[in-house]
Design a protein that fits this description.
single chain, alpha+beta
């Protein structure tokens, strides 16, 4: 259990995945996203459709990622 709560208030999903979403299945269950740091910022990538969901450019600003404490 993490002591760092989820603070997401609006999720991002692949548009194609949402169009193909089976009845009775949540977008969270259906999505196949990979998320990670890039040289410029942060990207969310759809593995199902091999396409970009969002690519954030931090324009050189330093961002410290949260690291779980052991």
């Amino acid at each position: 259990m993490s002591d760092h709560p989820c603070r997401i208030f609006q999720y991002m999903h692949c548009r194609k995945c949402l169009e193909e979403l089976p009845a009775g299945v949540s977008p969270q269950t259906w999505s196949k996203n990979e998320c990670g740091w890039t040289p410029q910022g942060f990207q969310v990538w759809c593995k199902r459709h091999n396409c970009n969901v969002v690519d954030l450019d931090f324009q050189g600003q330093k961002v410290t990622p949260y690291r779980a404490r052991n």
